[in-house]
Each structure stands twice: as C-alpha cells, then as structure tokens.
Amino acid sequence: MHERATSVEGVRRTNLGAVLRLVHHEGARSRAVITAETGLNRSTVSDLVATLVGAGLVEERDPDPTRRVGRPSPIVAPSEDVVAIAINPEVDALEVGAVTLGGRVRARTRESVGMAVEDVVAAVARIVDGWRSGALRGCRMVGGGAAVPGLVRASDGVVRLAPHLGWRDEDIASRLAEATGLRFLIGNDASLGARAERLFGAARDHADVIYLNGGASGIGGGLVLHGMAIGGAEGYAGEWGQSRPGILLEADRRTTQGVLEDEVNRGRLLDAVGLPSADDAALARALADATDGEVTGEIHRQRRILSAALANAVNALNPSVIVLGGFLAILHEHDPEGLLDLVRDQALSAPTERLEIRAAALGADRLLIGAAEAAFEPLLSDPLA
Q: Which of 58, 181, 291, 306 is the most exposed place for a label (fewest CB within 10 A)?
C-alpha cells in the first residue's frame, strides 16, 4: 500500500508539473483546453489547477464573456508574483532581471560594475535585497539563473573559463546562493538564449535550430536538434565564435589568424560609428543612421564573413531556422533577404531550400528569460517540492 501511495503521489506531482509547464510556456488557457492538451480527465485537471492555485503558482480568471456556447471554463494563468532572478554579467555591464512565470521580465536593471566575481555577487545581492523590500515586495523568488559568456560545465555549473570576464574555475553558483539565499543555476549565455528563443521567441515553431548570440564578449551559440538542446559531453558545445572563418576576399581580413569573433565583432561596429560603448538598441540606431561609406562597408564585410560560417553550419547540421541575437541580429536586420542569399550561395542547395534566418524575437530580454528558465526548471519538474 505504501508503494502504491508513493506511486500515486509521484504521478500526481508529474501531472502538476505538466499543467504548470503548459501554462508557463504556452500562456493562459481554459481548463477545457488544458484537459484537451494534457489528455487528463476533467476532474483531474480541476484538482490539479486547484492545487496550483493553492500553492500560489497559477491564478484563475473569469472566462471570456463573449463565449456563448456551453458552460464557460475558467482561464488558468501563471502567477506573475512568482519570479526567478536572472543575471547576465558582461564586460560592459551587469544586467539583472526578475522574470515571472510565463516569461515576462517584470523588473530589470543594468549597471556598470567591476567584473571580478566578488563585485558581481555583491551587486546582485544588493539589487535583490532592494527588490525584496521594494518593487517585488510580496513576490515569491523561486531561485536564480546566470547566463555567463564562457564555458560552463554542465555537471555542476562551474565556470571553467570566461576569458573576457577573467573568470576561471569559478563556482559562482555557491557564492550567489550564499549572498542571496537563492539557489542559482549557471549556464552559457548563448545556450540559455537558444532555450529562450525556442520556448518563447523566434524558434517556437521549429525543432532544429541554430542560435548565435553576439555580445560584448564575442559570439556564442546554442543548438537544438529534434527539439532537444545539444550541449555536448561536458556542456561546452556551441562555441561558434571560436571557429576559423572562411574569408573569400583577402581585403576582408582584419586579423592574421583570428577566429570568427575576432572578425565579426561588436567592438568593430562601435568603432565604425565612433561610439565608445552602447547597448544594442543604441548601436542599431547609430548603424541605421550612418551615411559614411566606411560604416556600411564594415557592415557588409562582417555579413560576408558571418554568412560563410552560417553556410558551414547549415551543411553540417541542416537546421530549419537560424536565429541571430545581439549585434548579429543587427547585421541580419540590415538586409534579411540578402544575408539568406549569401548563405545559400555558399551552402549546399538542398539544406537551404526551407531554411529561414530570423532575428531573435525576445531582443534584450532573451538572455534573462533563458537564465530564468534554468532557475524555473526544478519548480516545473515538481511544483510541490
């Protein structure tokens, strides 16, 4: 009897997770729709929703008043008072956000702080404490996630190397947990960005995805095949920026033996428009407003080199969509069809027949949402844990 009770409770917890995950990833929906989408019966769904409401994880709203046929079903929505703390340390700034169930960035701040681990940890602790007594008073913080531009070991979250931050073999999760009282999960920034775009953004309708993120630290990436995130043996897969670029025109080369991120580079774009620093929105505006031939020349040079790298990835992995984030999205938006044509000119024809290239739909939120998704995973797996 004990084993049977344990089994029944395990199934119930699994079903609770399935319902919470559904409304978190797919948005508010009626009990009737949840019943249809989960395959559970109506009374089971009613019990599960009531339990999630009691736990403060979802809320029920009045049904659509325009519905006239049949008995209306209440709308179940993820609670926006349940948040995960998300951080993205970069060489130019530290960004911290609070992301709700449902994937909305409810609060965020961007600060210029020292990039030493102790500086980042102290800043995060100060910001979280301020939110607890201020903007997020009354919210439930379920944990935290960090999107780090570097190699993160999947087994324990240790940052093996984040060269632009100067981090090596750093157990930042333990230090963040001690400073904030929250459990932190650490991941590569681009891999988490890929996860966010797959769940909430430009790749929602695709199962085979290549994602490249262009940030101040360089170019990283994520890979999804058959709907599964691919991390490699230790979690280090996706370092597209460290690949050797194919440069067809010798005049396009800016380094003697540089890797892709040395040639396709955010800093070079900032230099072209004469800005010492800028966020992606300001950089995009500056590039769009530029009339100087040297600026447009730099944009086209970087697009040519980027397209060769993308063509190699298409030949090797046959994605249905490539999603570009950060400054790479800016290069894409300069001429989306032109970039796709450049890739098609250099790749095999068959893998590009249905290929799409899209800018990241989540914009500046992508890495925060991805980091929060890592933090939410334990809750989604077992909402009553």
A: 291
